[in-house]
Amino acid sequence: MMTGAKSATWHVPEPSEIISHLRTRLAACRAWLAIPANAWLTVLLVISLLARLSALDLAPMRPEQAHWLATAHQFSPAASLTAPLTTTAAPGPLTVLIGGSIGRDGDARGAIALLALLQWIALAALALSLNRHLGHVSALVSTGMLGASPWAIFAARALSPSSLTLAASMLLLATLLSAIIERNGWAWSAAILLSVMAVGNDPGALALGVLCLGAIVIYYDRVHWAAVVVGLALALVVALTTDLGSALLSHLMPALPSTAQQGYVERLLACIRQVTALLSGHRVGALLGPTEASPLLTYGLFERLRQGLGLLVWLALPWIAFQAFQSWGRWQANTRGHGQTLLALWLWLPLLLGPRVDVEAAGWLGPATALVVLPGAAAASGLLVEVIARELRQSGLGQSIWLTVGLGGLLALALVANLYAAQAIPRMALKQPADGYGTPYRAWLHIQDLVVQGRSQNGADQLWVQTSDEVADTVRILWPEAIALRDDSATLLPAARPGLYLRWDDGPGERGPLERLGAQEVGRVAWPTGQDAVVLELRERNVAELLALANTRTEAHFDAGLYLVGYDWPPDAQRHKPVHVATYWTFANVSSSDRAASHTIYLAAIADDGRQAVWSGPLALDGAYWQEGLLLRHEIALELPSDWPDGPLALYAEVHRDGEPVVLLDTPIRGQEITASLGTVTID
């Protein structure tokens, strides 16, 4: 029997021990909050949290957000099992986060709240790290600038890679401060993994990976190499699962020619101006475009205060570089400024690298380089404020309570103005279209309510949408079951079923087919493109009644499952003007392969001498939507030159699957049924 060995026992804590531990932690928190600077830091963090999580339905919704929302919906557990995937790419971090937080009804507010909360957690981690390693002033100033910046708040609530890029940048800076100053080994693993995930989310944020590598090279004597190996192994797994290599290569390929382009300095200065604007809130009112802004938003004093914050950032950039150079000159001393050196690296490495590799702007937030630099610029500005305050105290000016209160009051007023702008701009965009900000999500939700109202009124079981590419993704995420038409040249007719339409109108104009059929407007919502999103309902009509709308009836059957049942040739067709021919199509026995394939429609007018005027293109309804019983009216424009010969024209139609050889349109009708003769027509 071995002696002296202690047997390991598992101790289950008693309730009294748990209560005692909680009391100890609570006492520690109270002691921490008893320090005024810590209490003010907590207040700033609470305000920034409320600013990001309030009125989530006013988050900006632009085509970019619609695209990411529609893509993420495909990977959502709540997505319809019958909805086909439109992408086979591996889902990235943003897709996974959004897809996992979309509601069963497609409500995106959960995803918006999640991204906003993630950015706030990153901000809180950075604030506590700066408070611990660089001092109270740097933590307070940087938290105030980042927490109240309207651009940062908009980024936190925008469903785009920019949201995660800014959060990852703040979290990585906090992690590297811990790794370098505290020699925290696991922080090195977290930094490597975080930088790779950030680049996988947005290849434009390559600077984060370069920053992590630069920190390892410069602070090699403080690196825990075992932790680095663990981080690299985890990062390799992430890179392989997200297909990071091909995404990064596709981003860098357009940047290679830019190394020979002129204007490097101009692009560098433009990036710095964007950083100062993001932090100071300068020119945030430009998001409203022609929309009339609130007087408080455009008040001159607020803009001057924002310009003052921007000037502080401009001064901090060269100052932090000088501080890092001065500190690194004492590289043998244990007291060298690790924080200043890291901030200088954080600011200038991406700024110098960005104009070469960041060739595309990330929407209205600017290039990804600006988002990467933002936390470092805020921290450097805080350090500069601390130095200025110390110099004022030493000179005697800082002893004046009025000067301290005055400068602090101006800084607080600037932050309040930014918070007001962050809350006011979405509400102004909701009242009037704002091209810069986009459509607040509340407008999209109102459209959903209008659709529900229309369905309850006429019992429609489908939503028919006339849309364009820029809003097509919006339609897919709001109504996955909707049947989307390519443009306004086509109309689905309510044959033996009621119709419910969503379309985008330019305003009062000529009455279209829907109005002539007696469509009733359910409601409309202003859209930032200058159009109105309109919901229309049509009562059910007899099939024979609708077929009678075609001036000429045909029975052309094509082997793709298409039937051309009629057309309207305008009686006033002229040679030198486009001839608008309305064609009527229906569908039956459409195979699954034809639903997945692309088809090209040909309509040709052939003169007696063999000359042809041909229109070719896709049908206004994609094959995935071809359903038995639908009746489609598609208007086609034929171009007839002014020297077109006199006499009747023979009209032909032909349908081809893409990739098949195109046959002459005037060949006899064959058994495969891809060509049909529609009769003869005349022109003036």
Helix content: 40-55%
Task: Please tally the β strands and state the result.
Answer: 16
Query: Could you give a short account of the major beta sheet?
Result: 5 strands, mixed
Q: Quick check: average pLDDT?
A: 80
Would you tell me the structural class of the helices and strands?
alpha+beta
Our measurement of the CA-to-CA distance between the termini, rounded to an integer number of angstroms, reads 115 Å
Radius of gyration: 32 Å
Classify the beta-strand content into a percent band.
5-15%
Low-pLDDT residue intervals, each spanning 5 or more residues:
1-8, 80-89, 331-336, 666-672
Spatial order of the strands forming the largest sheet: 4-3-6-8-7
Question: Helical region count?
Answer: 22
Shape: elongated
